[in-house]
Design brief:
This protein is globular. It is built from six helices and four strands, in the order ααααααββββ. By secondary structure, it is α+β, with helices and mostly antiparallel strands. The longest helix has 17 residues. The chain is about 50% helix and about 15% strand. The N terminus is likely disordered.
Length: about 150
């Protein structure tokens, strides 16, 4: 009987760790644990703020592992960098230079959002050839790679 009660409490505790609100707790990617308090992703605008916050703090490993589209990052790490995540981090750092970050800040402050159930985008009125896009996966919003507007 004691074993059964202990097992029941153990399973209940594990379920509590896995699902505070019915969703599984996100796991580490490439050794980088999620920090949804510091870098929230519960809405597209929050995710963009988190991308900018991580980049401004030099946390490009966090940005690549936890804020960017996981399937895009996984494919690049595997196919382009031979499994070396650090090369992806370096590439992310190089691409998000001061000019790119300034433009992302402009998208955040001046952009027009279009938010759907699982996709979101932000565009600037005077920039027709670029957009910032997001997709929702397991309750979190992730920055997508393509910067071309979807039609």
């Amino acid at each position: 009987m004691r074993v059964g009660v202990a097992l029941l409490f153990g399973l209940a505790g594990a379920a509590g760790l896995l699902a505070a609100d019915g969703e599984a707790k996100p796991g580490a990617r490439y050794g980088v644990e999620p920090d949804l308090t510091t870098y929230p992703q519960d809405a597209p605008k929050a995710a963009l703020n988190s991308v900018l916050k991580a980049a401004n703090a030099g946390k490009f490993d966090y940005l690549a592992a936890q804020l960017a589209d996981p399937s895009f990052i996984d494919a690049r790490v595997k196919e382009l960098f031979g499994g070396n995540f650090e090369e992806q981090v370096k590439d992310t750092r190089d691409r998000l230079d001061s000019v790119a970050l300034k433009e992302l800040h402009r998208f955040l402050s001046d952009g027009e959002w279009k938010i759907g159930e699982a996709e979101a985008s932000i565009r600037l009125k005077d920039v027709s050839d670029r957009a910032v896009t997001f997709r929702k996966i397991d309750g979190r919003w992730f920055l997508e790679h393509p910067s071309k507007p979807k039609t």
